Amino acid sequence: MKRTHFFAIIFISVASLLYACNNSGSSSASTDKDTKPAFDLTAAKKGVEEGNKAFMELLKKGDSVGVANLYTMDAKLLGPNMPAAVGRSSIQSVLGGFVNAGFTNFSLITTEVWGYENLLSEEGVWALAGKDGKELDRGKYIVLWKMEDGKWKLFRDCWNSDNPPPPPAK
Amino acid sequence: MKRTHFFAIIFISVASLLYACNNSGSSSASTDKDTKPAFDLTAAKKGVEEGNKAFMELLKKGDSVGVANLYTMDAKLLGPNMPAAVGRSSIQSVLGGFVNAGFTNFSLITTEVWGYENLLSEEGVWALAGKDGKELDRGKYIVLWKMEDGKWKLFRDCWNSDNPPPPPAK
Question: pTM of the prediction?
């Protein structure tokens, strides 16, 4: 074997090794790229904030269909002193009842949001005011949010009042 | 340079390359080992089931301290027609009130659990029976569970009744 051939073989061998070594590195890098990006809780919180803002604005207008569309198709409205309303159309009729009763002036304040890409859990406080702005009731809630059609929507909505129940209507 | 020296240098170079290549592989393998195992929702659901079982048993015995210990230190009891009870000692006094009122015979049935390693969200239905076993009330709840001291504990507990409020006591 000529000395030049020998060097050529050594060169190719080392180059192949370096390539293999480097390639194994880049293949693991591409695996990292394939991994889902870290869950962005800040963006999710913004989705909850937007959902609550739309909730308050649409309910104030008496748009129970618009508010119902903020819930997932399979949502459950877990309201106090009523059975669970299951599914968007049942939820819409409960919300229609709120509108008819004049319960449209709600404020929702998020206390905290926890979650991951499949589900958010929100804790908050709510208040209901009359048309004159006077507070009628207040309480707390836990809402579970789920992504549907690219938006965070209410999936479970459980709330209650801080106040003793009002005396029954005469 | 002697031919044998030359081969020795080539051998050492190739061996070093192989070692470096192999070592980078094993270091990425150890990174994989360091990564947390996939979240086990089945095990988490079992934790919730055990928590609820202990809740029912301890409350039936009137052990409000035992039930309060199923809540995290920073838990919030978000009960209907009362302000939020914040922290384990406040929760214990509300539970003590339940015991004094004879509200100890609760059944809790989990409907669904969602979650990840930091937080579980449970949906369920509850019923309260009197000492004679007759149902007094029933409703639904959302409980958020958090890991504390190696156990899933109640972190937020929001419930309400399916029934209209009872008439106020005379």
Answer: 0.79
pLDDT in tens, A114-165: 999 999 999 999 999 998 999 999 999 999 999 999 999 999 999 999 999 8
Q: Give CA B123 to chain center in angstroms.
A: 13
Residue B32: per-residue pLDDT: 45
Query: For the segment A89-118, what is each residue's pLDDT rounded down to a tens digit?
Result: 999 999 999 999 999 999 999 999 999 999
Residues listed for chain B: 170
Asked if A160 lies within 8 A of B24 by C-beta distance, the reply is no
ipTM above 0.90, yes or no: no
Number of domains in chain A: 1
By CB atoms closer than 10 A (0-12, 13-18, 19+), residue B35 is exposed
Q: How many CB pairs under 8 A join A and B?
A: 110
| Domain annotation covers residue B19 | no
Instruction: Establish if A170 belongs to a structural domain.
Output: no
Q: Which amino acid is at B129?
A: A
Query: Do A160 and B79 make contact, defined as CB atoms within 8 angstroms?
Result: yes
Is A14 contained in some domain?
A: no
Whichever domain contains A135, its CATH number is 3.10.450.50
Is residue B29 included in any domain, yes or no?
no
Q: Please indicate if any CB of chain B lies within 8 Å of the CB of A119.
A: yes
Q: How far from the centroid of its chain's Cα atoms is residue B133's Cα?
A: 30
Amino acid present at A100: N
